[in-house]
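Supplementary Methods S3. Input chains for the assembly prediction are listed below.
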Amino acid sequence: MSDESPKAPSLAPVSLEDPHLQPYAKHPGRAEALAAAAMVIGFLGFIGFGITYWISDQTQWEAATLGGGMLALGVGAIAWGKYLMPQGPFVEERHDFHSTEAERDAMTAAIVERGGMVVQRRKVLGGLFALGSTAMGVVIAFPLIRSLGPKPATSRQATNTDTSLFATNWKENSQLVTADGRIVKVADLDVGGVLTVFPKGHEGSSPDQTILIRLAQIGPDDPPFQLESPGRTDWGVQGYVAYSKMCTHLGCPVGLYQKLTQQLVCPCHQSIFNVASGCIPEFGPAPRPLPQLPLKVDAFGNLRSQSGYQQAIGPGFWERP
Amino acid sequence: MIDSSLRWVDDRLGIAKGGRTFLDKIFPDHWSFMLGEIALYSFVVLLGTGVFLSLYYIPSAHEIVYHGGYLPLQGQKVSEAYASSVGLSFDVKSGLLMRQAHHWSADIFLGSIAVHMARVFFTGAFRKPREFNWIVGVTMLLLGIVNGFLGYSLPDDLVSGTGIRIAYSILESIPLAGSYLGTFLFGGNYPGNGIIIPRFYLLHILIVPALIVGLLAAHLGLLVKQKHTQFKGRGKTEHNVVGSPMFPTFMAKTTGFLFVTTAVTFILAGFAQINPIWQFGQYEPFQISYAVQPDWYMGWLDGALRIMPSWEFVGWGHTIPLEVLLPAVIFPGIIFNVFFAWPFIEARHTNDLAYHNLLDRPRDRPKRTGAGAMMLMLMFMVFGASSTDVLANFFQVPLNSVLWFFRIAVPLIPVITYFVTVKICEEMRGAEGIGKRKPPNVVHRSASGEFSTVPAEARPGDGHEELEAVPVPAFIDMVPADLATGPGIRRVMR
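Predicted structure tokens for the full assembly:
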């Protein structure tokens, strides 16, 4: 057949003996037996699923019977279609679906000339309608976007953690408690121990999550534990240090502490922070050290914060200086 | 019966002519055309199982005390979303099967879209006149990825909550608008006021699926209007389609295939555990587990985030977290823009304005095939990079080495892949008789011991008879007769 002779669909009846209508299978009887067997298995599978559902609700049996039933029925249908239905090959002509040049010109003219005619005559109306619909588009976006949630507090002095990325609930003298509200005492952790702590009254709060680590066993009268970060030598107390648990990369909890190397590892993207030298990022995508929380011990041996965090915790954002 | 009902409908709608054409629509027989069907049928499974799940799932972050069938959780404070997700797994009959089937079919859906897209790409099926359908398809891929993420975020378990946290931080990284996007969408600073779960639910079960259904209808409508592409072959031209008719052959095969796709999904759902949320536990913003990884179709983004160096830009009182913005916003933006624009990029490059209904063999377009292989390799490498910690553990090598391997390999290996692929294609194209059946040869040995090969002459048994493709007959003479209407039979020599 050449490219230039498209055939119209024939309306003349063809004989049942036409080779195009014969099955693809060399042994149609065998193919039919295969398809029939598959469909019987499928039927039995569905019966099995029905029984399973009522007597046991066992997931594996349900999957085996339902899935097996569908698989077998599907194989039967495919075998029927592939091996037993008219093998063809059949052909269909493609027709150009693009319009003629004249039709295209007419369409263009309808838009350009008719539209042009209307706009030319009533320029003011066109302008006003455009103005009105633009205004509508803009103001409809207000409730659609602005009503969604509160505006973020972009000032560094903001204190509401619901809206400010700068704020936490850590204040001067906040008491350290665990997620279930238990007060953390200076005797609670051995060297290498870690605990997730919150300011009392804000247990489980996301921005306040802080990881408390005991780096050394130092009594109250021993010389203070020397941190390598300048200006922060007195931020730890009796071998304890505390850092924001929120990763500076994407905010995952930096939950893995490697005692041997004194490193904190973020399980999400493997940023590694060196705890002994101010939690500076040593490896991975985190750009900044974890902010440190200055600690102290009160008269009852309870751990407290000297102050809140002195910088924004967590990942970077535009308003962060 | 059929006749009178059809007449009744046709009197009112005039469907007979178009309907007949539709029943006669020809589907080319090639296995690669089945990949899109897998995507279509997984979507059917997604809709069906999704409706089942939505009967039991409660989209609420409200905290309740768990009293369900899963004893380890008894008496713990959990969100309603988490409790209902665990509940529909254990307390609803067949619920676990349906939930796992839903999750598996999402993974199969996106996997089959990716492979279908590769088929369309490597064979050039996206060329004129099918650019619209390529764009519709890429949009559905994008929506599919988005809806997959929204869906696995709903159970409010530890893994999904971590994913939402990361998504929030990615929003936050966008210059100027970041903080606003975060508080608007979440109803406040992370974790927000609990509105995110109902919002994700609305998007997941209504808005995004409705968009996908609309695009799917467009995808199939365009396919019917523009007709299938086909590979080159005997009797196949730019102006016809050769294969099986819609009714009954294709319909039987494709219905069977719908069952098979569903069957495989349900067998996986029953025997291969996926997303065991009761083991992860309720999400708490301060808890985390080891080997936190998203579903496979998000892996490429996670990998890109992992290998990115820590290049935060700070200046003029502002921070631009490039270590997040580049891999999680700019990188996928570029990738999808390249996807969308590819038909036009290629047409401009090749200056090709012609209609193409015959498919290319990948080897015949070395540069396109090279570019496709490069993209696949890039995706594969960044996907691999999302497992740096697992790989380091498995191979017992330092994490640093694995990370540095990927930092170098991700940009380098795809480029190498391009040149190697182009070279392979060119070599294949240059080979004699490529793509053709080799004729039998006769080896002669001359008197001086020299060997020579001569193609054998055609012998009577070499050829076979093959049917000429004919239009699907409308009327079949149901009474068997002798072979009155002689079909075109042609003799094909090997």
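Chain B has a mean pLDDT of 90. The first strand of chain B starts at residue 26 and ends at 27.
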